[in-house]
Amino acid sequence: MPAYGEKRPRGIIPGAVFASVEPGISGSGMRGAADTGMATLSGRQPTFVPSPGGDRPARDGDKGVRAAKRVVADLFGDPLQRRFNVRYWDGTEELSADAAFTFAIERAGALRRMLLPPTELSLVEAYLYGDIDVTGDIEAAASLGDIAIRRIGSVAGIARVLRHVLALPSDEPPSARSEARVARRLRRFGRRHSARRDARAVRFHYDVGNEFYALWLDRQMVYSCAYFAPGESDLDAAQAAKLDLVCRKLRLGEGERFLDIGCGWGALVIHAARQYGVHATGITLSEQQAAYARARVAREGLEGRVTIQIRDYRTLGEMAKAESYDKIASVGMVEHVGEEKLDAYFAAVHRALMPGGLFLNHGIVRVAVANEHPVRDAVGSVLWQRNQFIRRYVFPDGRIIPASVVLASAERGGFEVRDVESLREHYASTLRHWVRGLEHNEARARALVGDVTYRVWRLYMAAAAYGFRTARIGVIQSLLAKPDSGGAVWVPRTRHDLYRD
Fold it and tell me: What is the 3-state secondary structure of 249-264?
């Protein structure tokens, strides 16, 4: 799942908890209910109490705590304006009557480390390594970035905050950095989006472990946007519906050859073979995914109909007719191709597809925004060091691009665009299910991957849910056709067949 725009920096996933971080997704910012975090709630009085179990009694006169309160007020408004609680390291709390979450400052030097320097990475790492914490609704906490930007979006505002930040206390940083899974020195494996380097990046992301993903995915291990029917709230049912939607859009038929690019743990190829009678091939670069998918294929007795390969998309279509497929799908993979390789991606799929065949391309896209201050924003991007969270901790080299760029590349590759559908709201719902599943299995997740990796995924997915909900990023399914020499394609004139029971 996560490039920035307007007046705020934006990174590879949409809006992080304290910073805007974008898989190619966009920045923070909140609409609707979250915007009310700036509203003054008349009659509400802030409360200052020591937390139960605090190390020592609350001392409002403590110089460090007073300095921290000034910085928090600079960034997020005074306690009357907030819709969240703040807890300081000495046990003091500023409470809200209807708080969705608590922003906890765990150490005296936490805010200084978080804000000096004020980069995406320093803000995010304050959460990853336990300088700060968020309890409660972490998606709601994504509004903090927007609130801060609105409050200090001027030279005078920045100067005021800086003066107060410099008065903050300092202490020793946490020692959790040694636990982190960090992607380093990918340049050793070639240029960005070379086959060797892409393989390393994919394995870094997906080889966190099948058991970890199983804690929060659905029963079939589908790691992409689900499809929720009206009134449907069950993740298993919604993911099964998405698999079937892909098959119906491709009009899969008995005996056809079907390819799934980036097949993950094999759910789509197994569903297509079992329900539609196709001969299915799935390709992935993740050895752990391939091992899991092959075991499931064998368990379900589908070895004669489903094949799983560890393979790069660039090799598609190299064996002429032996390599041809009637229908092809790519679900949640195009985000990792890179804009510079998009034309090669669509060319490879076009080679592998039979004339008249269909290709369903499902991927996250960036919502383009007007750049009102290009010079200022360019300087801000350099200072902000955007995308560093995703590149270092989640998906090295991952980037999303606007839908217009994706579709234009498909057309350059010889495809005809037959249909495009946005599933943005569905992905927001999917991610909320994933976050709840991860939080529900917190103890097991921490035991499997450690505290830092648990926090990486909790932050990443909650921020992505926020980005989809606020239309900072989208996800589209594009049905593309490869007309034969006479211009014919295997698709009916209407969508009537898609909406049958």
Answer: HCCCCCCCEEEEECCC
Convert the pLDDT of each residue in 438-466 to its tens digit.
999 999 999 999 999 999 999 999 999 99
Residue 301 burial (CB count, 10 A): 10
Q: Give the C-alpha separation, 225 to 433, whole Å.
A: 11
In DSSP terms, 257 is beta-bridged to 279
Q: How many helices (H) and strands (E) does the chain have?
A: 17, 12
Going by C-beta distance under 8 Å and a sequence separation of 6 or more, which residues neighbour residue 304?
A: none
In a 10 Å sphere around its CB, with 0-12 CB exposed, 13-18 middle and 19+ buried, how is residue 3 labelled?
Answer: buried
Position 423, amino acid: L
**140 contact partners, CB below 8 Å, separation of at least 6:** 34, 83, 84, 100, 101
Reading the block at residue 194, the tokens are 């070379």
Tell me if 398 sits within 8 A of 336, measured CB to CB. Answer: yes
Residue 117: is the preceding peptide bond cis (ω within 30°)? yes
Two tokens, residue 314: 């660039």
For 7-29, write each residue's pLDDT tens digit: 333 333 333 333 333 333 323 33
Strand-by-strand arrangement of the 325-331 sheet: 306-310, 279-284, 257-261, 325-331, 353-366, 473-481, 416-422
User: Tokens 């870094």 — which residue?
Assistant: 204
